[in-house]
């Protein structure tokens, strides 16, 4: 029996020993939904009991937070920290973590990092500020590597502050970078643009001829991070797919890039090993399932159908489907949470790195999300914004095509109007409506994606899938191609 199978056997016992399902039933997130199943929750045991319960989703979380008090939702008297999601549906979801939850998650990150780098590493961590979960990562990394006896130095910056902190980075050169792929490439561009200015300013301050010559030289030949941070060895990237960015990042930073997986709502991080062929999910504090593709197709064709899921420990190589996670968090465990990531099991046996669980590749999404890298916009919100009452015209059908310009996602919005009084006014009204949505506005203003154009067309032919539903979001093949800069 593999260690991974032994872990899953232990998790089955842990479900019962911790009374995970019975405790979770007290939360408003689960109570009414589970009550409708007519199942006696008090008698549920192990995986059989777990699998008798319905899945939950981000929509369930959002609706629960809108309609219930905090006390009805959380399972502990106190909370250590509140994290938030990006708010793709307009209203953010707030996720409570206890101190023990925080510590367990941090230990997992620290153990993963220390598999690759020594305690002498200096980590440049590009994060979003709290209450986003990445804002806490640098402090968790320092604390938990310290608890393991190998405290790692962390240089933490938000994207907006990197330029101001560049002087420190020049003097205390990092050896590892932790962040999102698109921000890493954006920073590489900024290094190339700002190095001549920084060197010129330093030359003026220090009255250095050598620095002045260097400043002039950098105007002739672009300087990328690998030319400055020559001891950089590793990069760990999450928040969006690494694959399209991998070669460009490795080229501009001079490092080996690794994929990471984490999500705000709960435990179960994934990481890529040196084989660079999928991610391991150690699952020390979480149970992973996959809803096979055939089951998803049945669900798409019959909304009343409840798909069956397979445990990761039983999943076969080549299986594709949707990831589902159950964790053991104290404040609010996620029970059968549909992460909405579409995955493929690329290996189900022992890896050369020593891990013996399945390796997984993230291959897409199963929900109506417009994926713009670290910005994700709900197609439902898009629809609401585009169908407001406008004097200039009215939307009949719409479609978003997502592609790339360099490393930035680019969207083209095509609209089939029901009527139009003035085309330019109608396009402006549509743009203003989208721009009024906070997440869209922040992404556009910070140059995280490009709105290429709004096109009015006479006839829009949408792709049809299950139950005659039309697909309003398409991805151009270029979106998945290797990014070059």
First-last Cα distance: 47 Å
Query: Proportion of β residues?
Result: 25-35%
Largest sheet: 12 strands, mixed
Question: Helix count, per DSSP?
Answer: 17
Fill in the CATH topology of the largest domain.
Rossmann fold
CATH class of the largest domain: Alpha Beta
Notes on the protein architecture:
The protein folds into 3 domains: 3-97 and 265-367, Rossmann fold (3-Layer(aba) Sandwich); 101-258, ANL, N-terminal domain (Rossmann fold), CATH 3.40.50; 370-480, 2-Layer Sandwich (GMP Synthetase, Chain A, domain 3). Helix content is 34%, strand content 26%. It has 17 helices and 22 strands. The protein has helices at 3-17, 20-24, 31-35, 46-51, 58-67, 70-73, 99-114, 137-147, 166-171, 181-206, 209-220, 225-228, 246-253, 293-301, 379-386, 423-435, 438-445; strands at 81-84, 94-97, 122-126, 153-157, 176-179, 234-237, 256-263, 266-272, 279-280, 286-292, 310-311, 320-327, 337-347, 359-365, 369-372, 375-378, 393-405, 408-420, 450-456, 463-465, 469-471, 473-475. It is globular.
């Amino acid at each position: 029996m593999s260690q991974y199978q032994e872990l899953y056997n232990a998790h089955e016992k842990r479900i019962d020993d911790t009374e995970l399902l019975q405790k979770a039933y007290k939360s408003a997130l689960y109570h009414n939904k589970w009550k409708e199943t007519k199942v006696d929750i008090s008698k549920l045991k192990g995986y059989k009991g777990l699998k008798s319960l319905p899945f939950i989703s981000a929509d369930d979380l959002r609706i629960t937070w809108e309609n219930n008090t905090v006390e009805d939702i959380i399972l502990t008297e106190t909370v250590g920290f509140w994290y938030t999601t990006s708010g793709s549906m307009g209203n953010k979801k707030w996720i409570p973590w206890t101190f023990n939850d925080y510590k367990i998650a941090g230990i997992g990150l620290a153990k993963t990092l220390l598999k690759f780098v020594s305690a002498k590493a200096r980590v440049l961590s590009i994060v979003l500020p709290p209450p986003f979960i990445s804002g806490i990562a640098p402090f968790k990394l320092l604390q938990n590597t310290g608890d393991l006896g190998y405290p790692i130095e962390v240089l933490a910056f938000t994207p907006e502050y990197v330029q101001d902190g560049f002087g420190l980075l020049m003097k205390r050169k990092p050896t590892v970078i932790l962040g999102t792929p698109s921000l890493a490439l954006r920073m590489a561009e900024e290094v190339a643009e700002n190095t001549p200015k920084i060197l010129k300013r330093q030359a003026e301050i220090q009255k250095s001829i050598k620095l002045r010559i260097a400043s002039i030289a950098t105007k002739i030949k672009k300087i990328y991070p690998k030319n400055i941070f020559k001891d950089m060895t590793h990069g760990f990237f999450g928040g969006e797919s690494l694959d399209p960015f991998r070669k460009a990042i490795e080229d501009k930073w001079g490092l080996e890039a690794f994929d990471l997986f984490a999500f705000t709502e709960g435990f179960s991080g994934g990481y890529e090993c040196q084989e660079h062929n999928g991610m391991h999910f150690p699952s020390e504090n979480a149970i992973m399932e996959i809803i096979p593709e055939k089951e998803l197709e049945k669900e798409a064709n019959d909304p009343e159908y409840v798909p069956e899921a397979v445990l990761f420990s039983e999943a076969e190589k080549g299986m594709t489907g949707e990831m589902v996670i159950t964790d053991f968090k104290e404040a609010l465990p996620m029970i059968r949470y549909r992460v909405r990531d579409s995955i493929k099991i690329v290996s189900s046996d022992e890896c050369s790195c020593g891990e013996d669980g399945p390796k997984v590749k993230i291959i897409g999404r199963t929900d109506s999300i417009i994926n713009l890298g670290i910005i994700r916009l709900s197609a439902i919100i898009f629809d609401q914004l585009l169908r407001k009452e406008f004097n200039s015209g009215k939307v009949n059908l719409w479609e978003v095509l997502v592609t790339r310009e360099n490393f930035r996602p680019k969207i083209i919005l095509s609209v089939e109007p029901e009527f139009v009084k003035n085309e330019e006014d109608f396009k402006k009204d549509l743009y203003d409506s989208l721009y009024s949505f906070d997440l869209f506005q922040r992404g556009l203003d910070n140059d995280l994606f490009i709105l290429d154009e709004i096109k009015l067309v006479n006839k829009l032919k949408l792709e049809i899938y299950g139950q005659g539903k039309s697909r309003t979001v398409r991805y151009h093949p270029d979106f998945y191609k290797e990014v070059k800069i």
